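User: Before I run my own analysis I want an independent prediction to cross-check against. Here's the chain; please return only the structure tokens and, at the end, one sentence I can use as a sanity check.
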Amino acid sequence: MKLPIELKMLVPGYQARWRRSYACMLAEINKLAPRLHYGDDAGTPWIELENGPRFYGFATEKANREVFRLLRGALPAEIPESHFRLVKDCLNRYIYPHMRPDLKPAGYSVETMFGFHGQHKDAIADQPEHVRAALNEAFRPKDDEIFIDCGAFLGFGELRIAPDVRKGHLYAIEASTVCHALLNRNLTYNAVTNATALHRAVWKEETELELERGIAQGNTLVEEVHKGTSKERVRTISVDGLVEQFMLSRLDMLSLTLNGAEVEAIEGASKTLRTLRPRIRLAGWYSRGGTKIWQLTKAQLEKSDYRVYVGPRGNVMALPREHLAQVP
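Assistant: Structure tokens:
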């Protein structure tokens, strides 16, 4: 039986252990909080950065309410419990976005980075420093680049990257109806003109499938990875289909955060990988049939003549071999 949070908090040292585990996030939240304003628009919470964008998102759910209560004494007093999850999402997806592997919290061990995502704890951490520096530079956005972001969630990454690619464009693909609506709202409210949102699930082909729906970003086409609390029928599209639909003659960056469907996404990107040769970052820490996704996608990408770098936690960064002069 799971103990109520009230009883857990009575255990000597319990809160102290949580605060040690969340040391990095607590430090980052305390830096971010003075720049934030909080509000609610017809039941949708938002936070706004001083002289920056506004982020619409999800209210704090049960799991994060418990975390908030455990950390409360170490958190800035002005953060409402209702907005705690949104502050975390801002850190995980705007301050340190998936599409910018060169941006991550510095100076903290993995054991003190609870609350951050796998790619923040990884970032090819086992590579020599000069290799990591070269990879970070290779993945740094240039002002005229074209990005496809598969699994864009609420578009916080787009809000961060859009100013970096003012002469380029971002295509933000999101499967969940609820998340896509918030993604559109964030792009529209903040007047982002170089990003396009599309409501599709990324797969190997165009069809219709059941999306397993969970809380916020807990959605997947792969039931093996996550069994949702409800289902949503969604139209799918392949990466090759996206390139054709948007009539792209150039693609510089392909980001895949698909909760298990990365394997099919790569399968449906064969023409794109052959002709446009984007750099790739994907989440490889889930398993399919007992095999880690990083292992499956590494084999796929190597067949397309990519050099694949995999971190100890399954973070994948891949470059076409002809671009390897940038990386030792």
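Sanity check: The chain is about 35% helix and 20% strand.
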